[in-house]
Amino acid sequence: MRNFLKIFALFFLFILIACGGKKEEQAATDKPEMTGTPSDAFVVEVTGNDQMQFNVKTIEVPAGKKIRVNFKHVGQMPKETMGHNFIILKQDVDIAAFAARAMNAKETDYIPPADEQNIIAHTKLLGGGESTSIEFDAPPAGTYKFMCSFPGHYVMMQGDFIVK
Ligand SMILES: [Cu+2]
CA-CA to 156 of 20 to 30 Å: which in 24, 100, 134, 149? Predict the structure, then answer.
């Protein structure tokens, strides 16, 4: 009987410790989420894959809002051969001409420095499994082009970014 009580007490202690540890762990992982992004941003989830495709052809966002784009490369290929970025161009920019200039800008992740003025927002270049986030103010209402500027990708990897 004594032994039984001892074991029971040990068991009870073990549960206490286990639960205590779990609670602490949860609190630690909860923290970044609570202090992370401002809650007023409109969130858009975009992915790119090894088949050279975005998950969306059209993105609609509200005007006058802060926009957060969570961008993830859901493939496995490295960024040297299947890199993806997410770029929103200003309205008067020719997407084919921009893509042609971008091809020569490997050192800057295919964002030509001289073209920064033609871009509303862009992410860095990702390889398979990587992800990133950007935040920016929604441009004035209208339809914009989004694209990936990795050489040859824009033909398949583009769509409309609509602000209304
Ligand atoms: Cu791409």
Answer: 134
Show me where the domains of the chain are located.
1-36, 42-163
SS3 148: coil
Ligand 1 centre and the CA of 55: distance in Å?
12
CATH architecture of 42-163: Sandwich (2.60)
DSSP state of 39: T
Q: What does the pLDDT look like over 62-87, one tens digit per residue?
A: 999 999 999 999 999 999 999 999 99
Say how far apart CA 122 and CA 107 lie, in whole Å.
Answer: 16
5 CA distance to ligand 1 middle (Å): 64
| Whether pTM exceeds 0.85 | no
In the reported structure, the alpha carbon of residue 124 is separated from the centroid of ligand 1 by a whole-number distance in angstroms of: 11
Evaluate whether 73 touches 149 at the Cβ level (below 8 Å): no
Q: How far is the CA of 39 from the centre of ligand 1 (A)?
A: 29
